[in-house]
Write a structure and sequence with these properties.
By secondary structure, this protein is mainly β. The chain is 0% helix and 55% strand. It contains no helices and eleven strands. The chain has strands spanning 3-7, 10-12, 18-25, 29-37, 44-49, 55-57, 65-70, 75-80, 89-97, 102-104, 108-112. Strands 2, 4, 5, 6, 9, 10 and 11 form a seven-stranded mixed beta sheet that branches. A four-stranded antiparallel beta sheet has the order 1-3-8-7, with no helix packed on it. It is globular and about 45 Å long. The protein starts with a strand and ends with a strand.
Length: 114
């Protein structure tokens, strides 16, 4: 069974940090990334990383969020620092297999509030 399993969401205060994890299983994934969707807004790319380590991220998280990948463990991470209320959203892991198929994780809620 091919799946992406996320963990690490939660409720924090502004300025805090969280680390999201997404473990892939059942296939080899080439490109993986994190998307988020806030209430009433469209889903947006947060950060993505290829199997070879090339990174792309949205401007609003640059300098605060870091995406990384452990290929041996088929896991990607999103280290989120200096969280602000505008980061509140459901964060979903996305991956594309070597065959081009797209998979999504179930999503994890991140809430930033004082």
């Amino acid at each position: 069974q091919i799946q992406l399993m996320e963990s690490g969401g939660g409720s924090v205060q502004p300025g805090d940090s969280l680390r999201l994890s997404c473990k892939a299983s059942g296939s080899t994934f080439m490109d993986m990334g994190w998307y988020r969707q806030a209430p009433g807004k469209q889903r947006e790319l947060v950060a993505a990383i290829t199997r070879y380590g090339k990174i792309n991220s949205t401007d609003s998280v640059k300098g605060r969020f870091t995406i990384s990948r452990d290929s041996a463990e088929d896991t990607i991470y999103l280290q989120m620092n200096s969280l602000i209320p505008e980061d509140t959203a459901v964060y979903s892991c996305n991956g594309k297999t070597i065959w081009g198929a797209i998979y999504w994780g179930q999503g994890t809620q991140v809430t930033v509030s004082s």
